[in-house]
Amino acid sequence: MTVLLTGPTRNLGRHAALALARRGTDLLLVGRAGADLTAVAREVRALGARVHEIGCDLARLSDVRAAAATVRDLIGSGAVGPLRALVGNAGVMSADTRRASAEGYELTFAVNFLAHAQLIGGLTDVFATPARIVLLGSNTYYENGWRRLLHVPAAEWADPVELARPGLTSSGVAYSNAKLAILYYAHELQRHLPDGIGVAVFEPGWMPGTALGRDAPAGLRTVMRAIARIPGVSTPERSGPLLADVALDDRWAGLRDGAFVLRDEVRPVQPFAHDRARERRLWEATAELIAG
């Protein structure tokens, strides 16, 4: 079987890739071409897995379309086995929401959400059922006491075309908006998929100090690295194998409808994270945005 993983070069993605490799899967590693992608591919091969590196800048939808075409060619030629899982792990949190993707969309929304919607849309018909699509989520989409204390803002939903515009809001809100979009998209995606493909959203737990916050101020990065050493706090080493489990283990075979998995337990999402009108509008707007 074949598993496609985006964002495999660091932290959660790297540890998920290594865990998947230990299961003997064929791996399609989709990430920015360069030394980091080559290095993790080398690690995966050392564990006995077959791997193909697919260079792709997820901030360029043209790259994403090319990556999907490459995957289709590999599967069609028999170079890799049937596609059984797609894990949309890649993500960024841009410190400046005025930064834009190649198509002019706010960078966090473009990479975390639009790129994966583009990739999945280009591969829906090549999955071999039963199959799974696992998207990376985050509880930051809603506010609680702990996140309020840490000044982690909740989502502030708007029409998706507005969310895609650079400079609309702060970095943290943009990140949370993208994660709420993933929940809405996962629910709607399930309605458009053929039988046998289930959709889930994986929350790895808060992992302070990872590369996701590399654009944060130096002082905040130092604090996050210190918090990361507290026992019980999620780490890529702990959560990466859990992500691999959700993609492949029989325990999770029944996940569908955007089920939200927090590390190793299905959890309910906030009531407002189920909204048919928003989900339909997001689906329509996404088609418009990625068509370009």
Short description:
The protein has 292 residues and is an alpha/beta fold.
Describe the model.
- The protein is α/β, with parallel strands linked by helices and 292 residues long.
- The protein has ten helices and eight strands.
- The chain has helices at 11-21, 35-46, 61-77, 107-121, 145-149, 160-163, 171-192, 218-228, 236-248, 276-291; strands at 2-6, 26-31, 51-55, 83-88, 127-136, 197-203, 259-262, 265-267.
- Strands 3-2-1-4-5-6-7-8 form an eight-stranded mixed β-sheet, with helices on both faces.
- Helix 1 crosses helix 9.
- It starts with a strand and ends with a helix.
State mean pLDDT (0 to 100 scale). 92
Overall outline: globular
Strand content: 15-25%
How many helical stretches? Answer: 10
Helix content: 40-55%
> Low-confidence segments, ≥5 residues, pLDDT <50?
none
Count the strands? 8
Distance N to C terminus: 33 Å
Radius of gyration: 18 Å
